[in-house]
TrEMBL record:
Residues 149-313 form the Aspartyl/asparaginy/proline hydroxylase domain. Keywords: Dioxygenase, Oxidoreductase. This is Aspartyl/asparaginyl beta-hydroxylase domain-containing protein. Pfam families: Asp_Arg_Hydrox. GO terms for cellular component: membrane. One of its GO terms (molecular function) is dioxygenase activity. Belongs to the aspartyl/asparaginyl beta-hydroxylase family.
């Protein structure tokens, strides 16, 4: 191991033997990166350095570690130079970056190290075969125009509730049990993040629904799951000025989450995976909440969005029926 620690290029056969014995050896992966870089196999070198850095993070190793720092610097150089070469190639072939499709541009960002891979990571139930998409285009759904058109009337119903001092409760109660909360544990029983639910896990609040007829009738036209004890959830969600919801993931990737922003001061942001967006009043967000996401309200007033869930559009009627049977109370 002394040759690895010293920074010289180690014997690759010895490294292969080391990784056979210790497949999570950070030194072994860095050494393999060094070998491949010395052989001018930069693609493989990037893979080995990237894996070493991931394993080091999982093992709690400090990035300030000299070997890790050197690996990170070499990976950054490989990614930068590779990005310049790929971009120049595309330009020479008549395809400059400004004309790239969205997915191709994202692929180039991944190759350049500008984007991370954020997997679906549901906390309760994983449904296979569904694409990993951070934000969905609302225009791809037939029902979204009607929801956005109703936003002023929905906002008026919300303001009437607020004027009547209708109580918002803390989103995270003391019954969260084994749900992994991480940095969001500080929000348990904390009204920095609070909700007013017309329907929660499929159970309707008739009194609130009666006071919000436009909200309720509008959302019934969306493909909301109707599963007692599971869905839909239709709720006004309030994030106080200065509050932050730390990174977390949702429970089921067989549904998507929708935000209809109703009261949005300046300084409010929302991240899903790699992409950070600002809410715009009356404009829907549709996203996969099993991809890591977080929210900030850096404004001077409270932010309120209407949140509801819909079936994933990729699911067949048979699959929706099977999930309904599985999750119904």
């Amino acid at each position: 191991m002394s040759d690895i620690a010293s920074g010289s290029t180690p014997d690759e056969a010895a490294l292969n033997a080391l990784l056979d014995r210790e497949p999570r050896s950070v030194d072994g992966w860095i050494g393999k990166g060094d070998c491949r870089l010395a052989a001018r196999d930069v693609g493989a070198a990037a893979y080995f350095y990237r894996t070493a850095l991931r394993l080091a993070a999982e093992q709690g190793m400090a990035v300030e570690n000299s070997r890790l720092s050197r690996a990170a610097e070499r990976l950054a150089t490989i990614e930068h130079e590779g990005d310049e070469q790929r971009t120049a190639l595309m330009r020479s072939r008549g395809a400059p970056p400004e004309g790239w499709s969205s997915r191709f541009a994202q692929a180039m960002d991944h190759a350049a190290g500008r984007r991370r891979r954020f997997p679906q990571d549901p906390t309760a139930f994983f449904y296979p075969g569904l694409p990993t998409i951070e934000f969905f285009d609302p225009a791809a759904f037939a029902w979204t125009a009607a929801v956005e058109a109703a936003a002023p009337a929905i906002r008026a119903e919300l303001l009437a509730l607020i004027a009547a001092d209708t109580d918002f409760r803390a989103y995270l109660g003391d019954d969260v049990g084994a749900v992994p909360l991480g940095d969001n544990r500080r929000l348990v029983l904390n009204k920095d993040w609070s909700v007013l639910a017309l329907c929660e896990a499929g159970w309707v609040d008739p009194a609130l629904v009666q006071r919000c007829p436009v909200t309720w009738s509008t959302l019934l036209a969306a493909p909301i799951p109707r599963v007692s004890g599971w869905g839909p959830t239709v709720t006004f969600s309030l994030l106080k000025a200065g509050a932050h919801i730390a990174p977390h993931t949702g429970m089921h990737n067989s549904r998507l989450i929708c935000h209809l922003p109703l009261i949005v001061p300046e300084g409010c942001r929302f991240r899903v995976g790699n992409e950070v967006r600002e809410w715009v009043e009356g404009k829907l967000f549709i996203f996969d909440d099993t991809i890591e996401h977080e929210a900030w309200n850096d404004g001077g007033e409270d932010r309120i969005v209407l949140i509801f869930d819909i079936w994933r559009p990729e699911l067949s009627e048979q699959e929706r029926g099977e999930l309904t049977r599985l999750f119904s109370d």
